[in-house]
Amino acid sequence: MIFGAGERWVILVHGEGQDLDAWRSLAHLLSDRELCALAFDLPGHGASDGEWTAELAVPAVMSAVDFAKSAGAQQIHLIGAKIGALAVLAVAAHDRYQPHSIVALSPTIDERVAVMSLVREARAPKLILVGSLDAAGLKSAEAVYRGAIGHCELTQFPVSSEGTDLLAGDWGPHAREKVLAHLTHEG
């Protein structure tokens, strides 16, 4: 589903067990800021066909980037949640798919999606958001942060929420502002 229009695109990749609706509120916010947001269902989720296997996440993100380019995207940002965050980092490690920036919400380490030695090669500016009260999520986010090459910022919020749930609740406005600032930073 595409929200908004223009040459600056944001591709939104949900986590395992979710669908594109997890991004609906952020997608509307992005389109209000003149960014074109593309949210899609990973295979085996929502309205998509086929069975889900984690190995399909990276090719699905690559297809979304190819689609955005064919639709006229001149600038592409990647945002992923949980396993989707790992997938966008893995895709960004390939020169052909190098985005303008990356946002990873509670990135989940899963070698069925990508190995950390590949993920660390993503050189675009990165923002990692995580709930500090989610011990497993914090450990995973810190591992991604420590292994990152290039500019990477890790922001923790005092919540147990993870993934797209970080964008809601008491700290949701702060998380959304961090995302918007990262996407619109031109430096």
Q: Shape, please?
A: globular
CATH superfamily: Alpha/Beta hydrolase fold, catalytic domain
What is the structural class?
A: alpha/beta
Q: Compute the gyration radius: what is it?
A: 15 Å
Helix % is 25-40%
Distance between the termini: 30 Å
Could you tell me the mean pLDDT?
Answer: 95
How many discrete domains?
A: 1
Gross CATH architecture: 3-Layer(aba) Sandwich
Parts with pLDDT < 50 across at least 5 consecutive residues: none
Q: What is the CATH C level class, in words? A: Alpha Beta
Number of strands: 7
Fold-level CATH name: Rossmann fold
- Sheet with the most strands: spatial strand order: 1-3-2-4-5-6-7
Secondary structure blueprint with pairings:
Elements (H helix, E strand, L loop, with lengths): L1 E2 L4 E6 L10 H9 L3 E5 L16 H14 L4 E7 L1 H10 L8 E5 L10 H4 L6 E6 L3 H13 L4 E6 L14 H13 L3
